[in-house]
Delta-aminolevulinic acid dehydratase
Amino acid sequence: MKQTPAPFPSARLRRTRQTAAFRGLVRENTLTADDLIWPVFVRDGEGIEEPVPSMPGVVRRSVDKIVEAAREAADLGIPVICLFPYTDPSLKTEDCAEAWNPDNLSNRATRAIKEAVPEIAIMTDVALDPYNINGHDGFVVDGQILNDETVEALVKQALSQAEAGADIIGPSDMMDGRIGAIRTALEAAGHTNVTIMSYAAKYASAFYGPFRDAVGASGALKGDKTTYQMDPANSDEALRCVSRDIAEGADMVMVKPGMPYLDICRRVKESFQVPTFAYQVSGEYAMIMAAAQNGWIDGDKAMVESLMAFKRAGCDGILTYFAPSVARKLATR
Ligand code: PBG
């Protein structure tokens, strides 16, 4: 019997790649300004924009400048700005009381943005590290990070942020039980519409280095965070963290860092179908910027490609220091 040879090539997948129009037609994922959360660093003073050396293009801004930045972000269609305070070393203490001072930098910035740019949502960070004399996210006694005592402090911190007008509370501390405790306290205080984005799967990562410079915590940090942040070797454990945080009242969950943990993003989205975010952290930003500044990669293209990868992995949005640059680029395409 005569055999008909299989047609060659069996499929011409290049057909739908031949023009920009075809590529647009079959594109599976999109990246828009709606997907972006912009982390910014706040410092005291006035009229200040101070460069962070390990994060080219990123500055610490005084509150007046943060308000201007929030205006620009809102005009670019960025829905959320996320505040991180650079705390003066004189305000760092063992009891971390500055964390729930109603007039601390983060709360002052929140009120100023709310007043001037009401349409942008404000996310705040819940963790003690900017205020802690030893740089840890929780209280340290005899070299141990205390869980339950820290959670009580985090509740006070979260309440002061909600009081100031935060729309999204972002617990980044990795203590056990903090989501439930914060949710209960917010409900009791009448903050029923304040959302929680839990840093649910946050790994003990080397990629946070430049951030710790930016908030002035690197010099302070004694030891590492491996007894509370996750082991990079683990994946099932991330799902347990996410499931627990959803049960305790998180509205949205986050995986952090981003690029080396896209597998975790995918597993989380497929397992829970909740709003899922990734944090493209300071070290990821710094790597792309450093290579681009050396002329080793095309920085703009690498930025867009890296952010699209999060969408492909199943994320609903990304916290990224590139937010305004990529929003500007998307607007002119
Ligand atoms: C602190 C916190 C960190 C980041 C966000 N919140 C650093 C850390 O856990 O040491 C890192 C963000 C980044 O690297 O961009 N609770």
Summary: The pocket of PBG is lined by residues 125, 127, 129, 137, 172-173, 208, 211-212, 225, 281-282 (CB under 6 Å). DSSP finds eleven helices and twelve strands in the chain. The chain has a mean pLDDT of 96. The two ends are 57 Å apart (CA to CA).
